[in-house]
Amino acid sequence: MFSMLYMRSASDDLTARARIRDAAIAAFARDGYDAVSLRAIAKDAGVSAALIVHHFGDKSALRAACDEYVLAVFLDDKHQLIDAPTGDRIRAALHDAERYGPYVDYLARMLTDSTPAADRLFDAVVDLTRTVLDEQRRAGLLVEMSDPDMTAILVALMGLAPVMLRAQFARATGADRLDPAGIARTTVPMMELLTHGIYATDAFLTASRQAMEEE
């Protein structure tokens, strides 16, 4: 069996590896790592389980490869968020939502696991958010904040929430946050929240500051 595997051409080898990886990403995202077997992934990918072992070794190594691939998908595609949104950017975001859908489902599973890749991803999201906010602050686009680092973490969590709670968001609103209808419905309310806040008074902020000072 393995002698036959090594007779494959390089292009066939790379195509099979990509099929296995994509099938594993879909299966892990759908059912969870523990519930998925190599045999099931092989069936979805249209290959033998032996070929998975040839390319990746065991299931743990396959997951690590999936983690690294999903990390690259998200962290290599950086957008210039300091610029004002345009129609072209909005249309691009809608396209990206469809393109990245399978990887977003995997990412949601990934962030709930205590793995080095999940930690790297979260740290990278927070770092990117902090960088964008710092650029916007220098450009005079932000108000003064008492704790910019914590603000970056909170803004990052706001962005990750629809990913982590995608099914609940879809159930509650009737639209997936990542599809065009979901993005269209949430974009303006989110910008209203970030631009104007929700309270018409600073009484709650004042009370909170006083309470923290008394601690």
What does this structure look like?
- The chain is mainly alpha-helical and 215 residues long.
- The protein has 2 domains: 1-66, Arc Repressor Mutant, subunit A (Orthogonal Bundle), CATH 1.10.10.60; 77-215, Orthogonal Bundle (Tetracycline Repressor, domain 2), CATH 1.10.357.
- It has 11 helices and no strands.
**CA-based gyration radius:** 22 Å
Structural class: mainly alpha
Average the pLDDT over all residues and give the rounded result: 80
For the terminal residues, how far apart are their CA atoms? 69 Å
**Beta fraction:** under 5%
Main beta sheet, described?
A: none
Query: Could you please say which CATH topology of the largest domain applies here?
Result: Tetracycline Repressor, domain 2
Domains, number: 2
Please identify, by name, the CATH architecture of the largest domain. Answer: Orthogonal Bundle
Tally of helical segments? 11
Would you report the number of β strands?
A: 0
Helices and strands in order, then pairings?
Elements: H1 2-5, H2 10-31, H3 38-45, H4 49-56, H5 59-75, H6 87-111, H7 116-138, H8 148-164, H9 166-173, H10 180-196, H11 203-214
Structural key phrases:
215 residues; mainly alpha; Arc Repressor Mutant, subunit A; Tetracycline Repressor, domain 2; 75% helix; 0% strand; disordered N terminus
Précis, in short:
The chain is mainly α and 215 residues long. The protein has helices at 2-5, 10-31, 38-45, 49-56, 59-75, 87-111, 116-138, 148-164, 166-173, 180-196, 203-214. It has two domains: 1-66, Homeodomain-like (Arc Repressor Mutant, subunit A, Orthogonal Bundle); 77-215, Tetracycline Repressor, domain 2 (Orthogonal Bundle).
